[in-house]
Amino acid sequence: MSDRPALSATPRTRLRRMREKGRTQHSDLLAVLRGGLVAHLGVVVDGCPMVVPTVYGHDDDNVYFHGSVASRSLTARSEVCLTVTLFDGLVLARSVFEHGINYRSAMIYGVPRAVTGRDEKLHGLRILTEHVAPGQWDYARPPSRKELAATALLALSLAEASVKIRTGPPDDGDSPDAALGLWAGELPVAPRWERPVPDPALPDAAVPVPQHIAGLAGRRLDRG
Amino acid sequence: MSDRPALSATPRTRLRRMREKGRTQHSDLLAVLRGGLVAHLGVVVDGCPMVVPTVYGHDDDNVYFHGSVASRSLTARSEVCLTVTLFDGLVLARSVFEHGINYRSAMIYGVPRAVTGRDEKLHGLRILTEHVAPGQWDYARPPSRKELAATALLALSLAEASVKIRTGPPDDGDSPDAALGLWAGELPVAPRWERPVPDPALPDAAVPVPQHIAGLAGRRLDRG
């Protein structure tokens, strides 16, 4: 990973605000993608933006997601922006003005490619499934030929992307506001898996929760 | 709330897929907005979509957010799509094909309006701050005249919006796959506040964590 070139600085990935928060390494991008599960996909429909949530998976070169989420617009080749945001907590400052959030965010730009070959489609679906629930690809029934044909899978190159990260306490600790005597700090937030809920349609003879699912309970989702 | 008209069905809010997941009441929209904290704002820049995360607040008629997040594009009046997604968990089916997620999602379309009047700006900022951290508006130092002037606040009407919600177990409990003997169900996820982390710049004479912050630890973020 360390041999990869740094993230490109194109007109749309160059940060114009809060430059200090930008990260420039491909490994920074992968770290954000590893930590998330739902992306927000932006497309342009009739000149207007549309933003839809979608699950995704990724390898070192591409992010994969279901084409159906954007079926209204992605029939033609069109530019997208896929954004993954990990919300890490509130930044509680002494003044309302200095309040903010801690977060890790990645924005990926490009024209997604429809994955059509059987092998790459299986590769992409496996990556997507394993990203969302590691162990599930080998546990669940794999896609049939018909299901595979019915699945629209898109691949978006990671070549053009930007990463922004904010961590740490508020910035007004050495401002005149520090004398106000107010508490300031961070209120972290963590998404955690809870206990699995069996499908009521399961037979009475209990089917055990597979270990790769049961073992997630209580763990942070953003393990990246 | 029950007297409000149902959500409009415009060409872009009418659901074309998964119609059964659509909700049509204004109260459904408000419930999703109450539960979230970070929205994803989509804008069009030079014909390409850009999606940026932003904190928001809302009342019954508008969602408020900082204009600076979209400074690159929102200098002119332009259409946006603001999407709030609450990710509730994985839907683990017997087949890979039937996997999905449970979620609550709202998409709001329109041209945001710059809030310029002092009173409405204070109203919007209060709503935003109190949405993010209830109690913080009265605790922290309020915006000075200069800070208020430096804050770009946008209001987006809730008039054109769509809401989608998926809950419950997977849909393959009565398919032939049910005979596979595999476990299936939901793996819920919950974002929870953790313990507050004091700013290291606080004086040694401990400043107590205010109760409205300390009381959040362990509670779900999406209390809506």
Automatic annotation (TrEMBL), chains A, B:
Pfam entry (one): Pyridox_ox_2
Domain of life, per lineage: Bacteria
InterPro entries named among the record's database cross-references: Pyridox_Oxase-rel, Split_barrel_FMN-bd
Stretch list, region Disordered: 1-22
UniProt-recorded name of the protein: Flavin-nucleotide-binding protein
Species, as recorded: Paractinoplanes rishiriensis
Lineage: Bacteria, Bacillati, Actinomycetota, Actinomycetes, Micromonosporales
